[in-house]
Amino acid sequence: MTDVASGPLLRPGVRVGERVYRTLRHRILTGGLEPGERLSVPAIARELGVSRSPVRDAVLQLVREGLAQETLNRGAVISSIGRAELVSLYEAREALEGMAARLAAPHFTHDLRRRLLDNLAEHDEVVASGDFDRHIDVDAAFHREIRQSANSPVIARMLDQIQGQIMIAMRSTSVSGGMDRALHDHREIFEAVAAGDPDASEAAARRHIARLTEILRSDG
Amino acid sequence: MTDVASGPLLRPGVRVGERVYRTLRHRILTGGLEPGERLSVPAIARELGVSRSPVRDAVLQLVREGLAQETLNRGAVISSIGRAELVSLYEAREALEGMAARLAAPHFTHDLRRRLLDNLAEHDEVVASGDFDRHIDVDAAFHREIRQSANSPVIARMLDQIQGQIMIAMRSTSVSGGMDRALHDHREIFEAVAAGDPDASEAAARRHIARLTEILRSDG
DNA sequence: TTTATAAACATTGCATGCAGTGTTCGTGAC
DNA sequence: GTCACGAACACTGCATGCAATGTTTATAAA
């Protein structure tokens, strides 16, 4: 039992509701809770050893964020992300990742160069070893670096949100366009951003995402 | 007193919390509640004639949406949207409005043509009469038509959210680039979308927003 | 008059009560 | 065996209680 009350609940400065939210979000994103599964407030409260109030707050936040969906008087269930919804997510992601890369280009620093090169090196190993799970992580980390460097909090927040929903969908619909191809795309984005070229950076980032969208639209 | 319990509370199928949320959101967006103002849960509950629970739910949603900000144990206040945050909002908006226009182009219908032409005609009158408030409304309606035609629920939802925060900021920082210029931009977007040209549609929409972003970045 | 202190007050965040509603499961008729 | 019905059960959503915390006001000292 993952009791929320254990560990950093004692630390003041973090609401219990916030901790419950993070716990549930983590479970959803890592597959511990599957699409369609009910989020019973009393059951979760019992399991985590807290009252229903903070659990209710957490569930409402998940709904607001698109990770769960609710029906009146019937509570919330983990979102089932359909094909059409997933396409829409990728459309938004293409636009925002493109803009993030554009904005990151003029903010390119030595430090970012180092982190991106480290990431690409690790990605190389991962692709060579064929470890798909690690690929997912390294891939996500690359994009996170880019969007944090864009220095645009709104874009960063929206991309985080999109990322969460995509991760749910990925459990049922794998839209990998190939690990090696993703790595190749990342190198292109890196080159453009490192060169400080906003147009090329945006174009490279968009191609990368648009390719996945196309796979989604065509293939089953 | 705007008692939430009056009116459609009796109608089942709408949660009280949802009604409180809409009431508060409307007040924030129309200026009834100003940036920095506290959102006292007990006070709002008393005023609206409901208990604290649904009010608390509503306030948490507003925070989640970026319309309010909270501090631990000190509750929430209406967001003050600073210059940097506003720029970030416009950056995200540029990317998303551009993509919305791109997606709307292939979905152009006779019905959409009529609604956009109506809007442009009305906008003409409004500009001629110099009515700035109506300009805001007509302008927003134009963009709403475009993004609803994009048929991408994620993009539509995110643009709605951005629009809300921009409306707060607009009260202190007017970033109008001129009503006539906005109307001119809208005509360009209309032409491109009506022609079914995705690239031109996206480019026109982005120029329109980017111009405002530039005004923001430079001018005080 | 200004500053320090404490006491009164209000609010937050979690816990819990409860009516209304939806769901499940067992019983009996066919 | 299958279906209809109803009772038991569980959950949702709103209301309210309460300890901890923050804020404000009143009083006293300098």
Structure description:
2 copies of one chain form a homodimer. Chain A is built from 9 helices and 3 strands; from the N terminus they run αβααββαααααα. By secondary structure, chain A is mostly helical. Chain A folds into 2 domains: 16-78, Winged helix-like DNA-binding domain superfamily/Winged helix DNA-binding domain (Arc Repressor Mutant, subunit A, Orthogonal Bundle); 83-218, Four Helix Bundle (Hemerythrin (Met), subunit A), CATH 1.20.120.530. Chain A has helices spanning 16-29, 41-48, 52-65, 83-104, 110-129, 132-149, 153-172, 179-194, 198-218, and strands at residues 38-39, 68-71, 75-78. The two termini of chain A are 38 Å apart. In chain A, strands 1-3-2 form a 3-stranded antiparallel beta sheet. The A-B interface holds A 13, 15, 56-57, 60-61, 64-65, 72, 85, 87-89, 91-92, 94-96, 98-99, 103, 152-155, 158, 162 and B 13, 15, 56-57, 60-61, 64-65, 72, 85, 87-89, 91-92, 94-96, 98-99, 103, 152-155, 158, 162.
In short:
Chain A is mostly helical. The first copy, chain A, has helices at residues 16-29, 41-48, 52-65, 83-104, 110-129, 132-149, 153-172, 179-194, 198-218; strands spanning 38-39, 68-71, 75-78.
Task: Tag the structure with descriptive keywords.
homodimer; 220 residues; mainly alpha; Arc Repressor Mutant, subunit A; Four Helix Bundle (Hemerythrin (Met), subunit A); 2 domains; 3-stranded antiparallel beta sheet; 9 helices; 3 strands; globular; DNA-binding
Oligomer: homodimer
Strand content of chain A: under 5%
Please work out how many helical segments of chain A DSSP would assign: 9
> How is the CATH topology of the largest domain in chain A named?
Four Helix Bundle (Hemerythrin (Met), subunit A)
Mean pLDDT of chain A: 89
> What name goes with the CATH superfamily of the largest domain in chain A?
GntR ligand-binding domain-like
Strand order of the largest sheet of chain A: 1-3-2
CATH class category of the largest domain in chain A: Mainly Alpha
Global structural class of chain A: mainly alpha
| Residues in helices of chain A, as a percent range | 55-70%
Total domains of chain A, how many? 2
Largest interface pair? A-B, 27 and 27 residues
Largest sheet of chain A: 3 strands, antiparallel
Number of strands of chain A: 3
Rg of chain A, rounded, reads 19 Å
Low-confidence stretches of chain A: 5-10
CATH architecture of the largest domain in chain A: Up-down Bundle
Instruction: Give the overall form of chain A.
Output: globular
Secondary-structure element pattern of chain A, one letter each: HEHHEEHHHHHH
**C-alpha end-to-end distance of chain A:** 38 Å
